[in-house]
Specification:
Layout (H helix, E strand, L loop, with lengths): L7 E7 L3 H13 L7 E5 L6 H10 L18 H8 L6 E2 L4 E2 L1 H16 L4 E3 L2 E6 L8 E5 L4 E9 L11 H9 L4 E3 L8 H4 L4 E5 L3 H12 L4 E4 L18 H9 L3 H12 L6 H8 L4 E4 L4 E7 L2 E6 L2 E11 L14 H6 L4 E2 L2 E2 L13 E3 L5 H4 L6 H16 L14
Parallel strand pairs: 1-2, 1-8, 2-5, 8-18, 9-15, 10-11, 10-15, 11-12
Antiparallel strand pairs: 3-4, 6-7, 7-8, 13-14, 14-15, 16-17
Helix pairs in contact: 1-13, 7-10
Bound molecules: flavin-adenine dinucleotide.
Length: about 425
C-alpha cells in the first residue's frame, strides 16, 4: 500500500464514515480523474467500520431512514440493488427503509469503486496544522504514528461518535462501577461477558438506541428495565423530513443568530424517539419493564449486583447499566483540533463551529466541515445520511478548485 508520508495531497477527507465516503463517491462520479488527487484518512483499516460497529453493537435490523438515503448519488441505488438481487423484502414499509444487511451490502458494492484507486488510508489524525500563507499546501496532517503529509484542502467528516454523552449524575457512579455502567457506544449485544450476566439489564434513554437495545436484549432472553426521563415518543424519523427541502433550509439560512439556529436544531431533533416498528416490538416483549418519567436517585452495590433507587422505586439485582444517552458534539473534544482552536479564533456555538455558506471554517481557508460538524449550516439533517448530499452540494465547487483542469461542465446552473 502506498504511504502518505511526505506527500502533497490536494484534497484530504478526515473520516471514512458515511459522510467521508459519500462525498468521495459523489466527487469521483462527477470527475473520475480526481482519484489521483484525493485521500480519505480514517483511524480504521476499512471504510465504514464505525458505521458497521455501531449498527452491529445494538442488533439494529433496519435503518430508520428511507432507502433513498445512502452513500451514492443515485437516489434509487438501493432499491435497484434490492430488485437486482431479489431482496425487495428487505425494504420495509412504509418508506422502504432498508435492512441493515441490505444497506451494508449495497455500501460494500459501492466501495469497490474506491478500491480501484489507492485513496483510502488508515491514518488517525493526531494534529492538524495550518501554516497560513504557506503556498500550495498549507495544511499539515500528523498521525498518531508521527507520519506527516501536506494538503491544500481538508474536509472534516468526523461524525460525533467521539462525543459520547454521559449525564453528569452518572459520572461518579460510572467511576465507582466502570465495568457495570457503560455508554451504549461501548456495549456489544453479543458480548461473551453479557452471556454470563445473571441479573437485570437497565437501559437509560428514550431514543432509538435505547429501544433497539432493549428489543435485542429481550430477544436474547435478558430481563430488561428501560428508564426514560420523559414518556416514550414514537416517530418514524429523527427529524421532520421538511428539513431536507428548500423551504425550511432557506428559512434556516436566513437566520443570522447562530444561537437561535442551535435552538432550532434542538427543537427539531428533540430528545429522542422510537420508530413505530421498534415500539410495537417493545410493547409485545415479555421480560421488559418500562419506567417512563423516571429519575435515578442512587446506584449502590449489593452482593454481586447493583441496586438502583429510582423515583419510581427500587430495582434490585442489576448486573449492568447501559447509558443510551446519545452524543453531544463539541469540536473541542477532537484532540487533533486543539492546536488550531488555540491558535486561531474559530468561533464555536455550543461546541459547533460557525461555518460559512460553503461549510468553510473561519478564519481557516479551505478547511470544511460535513456531518454533525456542519449542523449550524445544514440544519437538523446534517449528521444523518441525507446530510452528506446536502454537504457535498455546498462544498463541491470549492473542492473542484483544488483539482487540476476543472472541466467547464462541473459548473451547474441554479
Ligand atoms: C446505531 C445508529 C443507527 C443510525 N441509523 C441511522 C439511519 O438509519 N439513518 C441515518 O440517516 N442516520 C443514522 N444514524 C446516524 C449516523 O450515525 C449517521 O447517519 C452517520 O453515521 C454519520 O456519518 P459520519 O460520516 O458523519 O460519521 P461516522 O460514520 O461516525 O464516521 C466518522 C469517521 O471519522 C473517523 N475519525 C474521527 N476522528 C478521526 C481522526 N482523528 N482521525 C481519523 N479518522 C477519524 C472515524 O473513525 C469514523 O470512521 C445512526 C446512528 C447510530 C448510532
Amino acid at each position: 500500500m502506498k504511504t502518505l508520508a511526505h506527500r502533497n495531497i490536494p484534497i484530504t477527507i478526515i473520516g471514512g464514515g458515511i459522510h467521508g465516503i459519500s462525498i468521495a463517491l459523489r466527487l469521483l462520479r462527477e470527475m473520475p480523474s480526481a482519484a489521483r488527487h484525493i485521500a480519505i484518512v480514517d483511524r480504521y483499516p476499512e471504510p465504514l467500520t464505525q458505521w458497521r460497529q455501531k449498527t452491529e453493537r445494538q442488533g439494529m435490523t433496519f435503518l430508520r431512514s428511507p432507502a433513498v438515503h445512502h452513500i451514492t448519488p443515485d437516489p434509487l441505488g438501493i432499491v435497484e440493488y434490492a430488485e437486482h438481487h431479489n431482496r425487495q423484502h428487505e425494504l420495509a414499509p412504509p418508506y422502504s427503509q432498508p435492512s441493515t444487511k441490505l444497506f451494508w451490502d449495497y455500501c460494500n458494492d459501492a466501495l469497490t469503486e474506491l478500491t480501484q484507486y489507492p485513496i483510502y488510508y488508515q491514518f488517525e489524525v493526531a494534529k492538524l496544522r495550518w501554516d497560513k500563507g504557506a503556498d500550495k499546501h498549507p495544511f499539515r496532517l500528523i498521525s498518531t504514528n508521527n507520519v506527516g503529509f501536506r494538503s491544500s484542502c481538508v474536509i472534516l467528516a468526523i461524525g460525533s461518535d467521539d462525543c459520547a454523552y454521559i449525564p453528569s449524575e452518572f459520572t461518579s457512579w460510572q467511576h465507582q462501577y466502570p465495568d457495570r455502567i457503560i455508554h451504549s457506544s461501548k456495549f456489544l449485544v453479543d458480548s461473551q461477558q453479557l452471556s454470563e450476566d445473571t441479573g437485570k439489564i437497565v437501559i437509560v434513554g428514550g431514543g432509538l438506541t435505547a429501544g433497539t437495545l432493549a428489543k435485542s436484549l429481550c430477544e436474547k432472553g435478558h430481563q430488561v428495565v428501560l428508564i426514560t426521563r420523559k414518556q416514550l415518543k414514537t416517530e418514524q424519523f429523527d427529524f421532520p423530513p421538511i428539513w431536507l427541502g428548500p423551504k425550511a433550509l432557506t428559512e434556516f439560512a436566513n437566520e443570522d443568530d447562530f444561537q437561535q439556529r442551535y435552538k432550532v436544531i434542538q427543537e427539531n431533533r428533540g430528545e429522542g424517539s422510537i420508530t413505530p416498528e421498534v415500539m410495537e416490538a417493545l410493547q409485545n416483549t415479555p421480560h421488559l419493564d418500562i419506567y417512563p418519567a423516571t429519575y435515578i436517585l442512587s446506584i449502590t452495590s449489593a452482593k454481586h449486583h447493583l441496586q438502583i433507587n429510582t423515583s419510581h422505586g427500587m430495582i434490585a439485582d442489576v448486573s449492568r447499566v447501559i447509558l443510551a444517552t446519545g452524543y453531544r458534539f463539541n469540536l473541542r473534544r477532537y484532540g487533533f483540533m486543539t492546536e488550531l482552536i488555540k491558535q486561531y479564533p474559530i468561533p464555536l456555538v455550543c461546541g459547533f463551529p460557525k461555518l460559512d455558506d460553503n461549510l468553510q471554517f473561519y478564519p481557516i481557508e479551505n478547511l470544511f466541515g460535513s456531518g454533525t460538524a456542519a449542523q449550524l449550516q445544514i440544519g437538523p439533517a446534517s449528521g444523518n445520511i441525507a446530510g452528506a448530499n446536502l454537504a457535498y452540494e455546498r462544498i463541491r465547487e470549492k473542492m473542484f478548485a483544488h483539482l487540476p483542469q476543472t472541466p467547464m461542465h462541473i459548473k451547474r446552473s441554479g
